[in-house]
Amino acid sequence: MAGILFIISAPSGSGKSTLVSQLRSMVEGLEFSISYTTRPSRGSEENGREYHFTSREEFERMIATGDFLEWAEVFGNYYGTALSALDHAKEAGKDLLLDIDVQGAVQVMKKLPEAVSIFILPPSPEVLEMRLRNRSAAEKMTSETVIQKRLAEARNELKQVWDYKYALVNDVLEQAVAEMRAIVLYERSAREAVETLAKSCRTDAASPKLRAVLNAFGG
Ligand code: ADP
Ligand code: 5GP
After folding, report:
1. How confident is the prediction along the chain (219 residues), in pLDDT tens digits per residue?
2. Which domains are delineated in the chain?
């Protein structure tokens, strides 16, 4: 495995978590980075599974000690990716998936330009609003103000789509999952092909072509 970093961003409610969880059940070798956040857990979320839930004080201490690859304030709470997530995935020989907002994504793109960025769009504002409402009804917690804030924020975030390498519309779930899977497999195969070609040119691989030329020169 090449150790590819996939950045996935989407306006809240677009279906990113749903897509990512389906993708992970279909594609081997993908590790999901568990972010740190100061927001309280919702629904059935567990500490250490969806997020590492932490206090503002602890988060600020981590910023000060340089523990984060990126961090941002989203909807009044801190969210961040620990640098250790990269090492962990590398040691495990896996590709790493970051589910982060557009501010965090821009930071990672600058630091690690080889990262593969994917933006997920909802099919329309109406569908996004419906998904936000359905989810909040299921979790019995999100207020009307929060829904309105997320809808307004979605319009802003969509402007960043052109900074990403890929964009897909999560309309029919199966189609969106297939597109995301195709992106992951394509990026892997493209890098593997390049790696194989580069390795074949290494002098310590001493390819037959290299030997033949040297022989012809009497070496
Ligand atoms: P996000 O992680 O982007 O905030 P979620 O994955 O929680 O979004 O999805 C928001 C809501 O939309 C959930 O109730 C989810 O079941 C639903 N949903 C996600 N994708 C689709 C889809 N393609 N079609 C219909 N409903 C969807
Ligand atoms: P939620 O609270 O709905 O789980 O997430 C809100 C937003 O925070 C989403 O856009 C999500 O992608 C983003 N987010 C989650 N983890 C991180 C992170 O580690 N860094 C950044 N920058 N954003 C994150």
Report:
1. 459 999 999 999 999 999 999 999 999 999 999 999 999 998 889 999 999 999 999 999 999 999 999 999 998 999 999 999 999 999 999 999 999 999 999 999 999 999 999 999 999 999 999 999 988 776 666 688 888 989 999 999 999 999 999 999 999 999 999 999 999 999 999 999 998 999 999 998 889 999 999 999 997
2. 5-32+94-216 (3.40.50.300)
Pick the residue whose CA is nearest to atom 15 on ligand 1: 15
What is the spatial distance between Cα 19 and Cα 124, in angstroms, rounded to a whole number? 17
CA 142 to chain centre: 25
Taking phi first (over 0 means left), then psi (-120 to 50 degrees means alpha), and beta for anything else, what does residue 58 get?
alpha
**Model's pTM, two decimal places?**
0.91
**Which residues form the pocket of ligand 1, taking CB atoms under 6 Å from any ligand atom?**
10, 12-18, 131, 134-135, 170, 173, 176
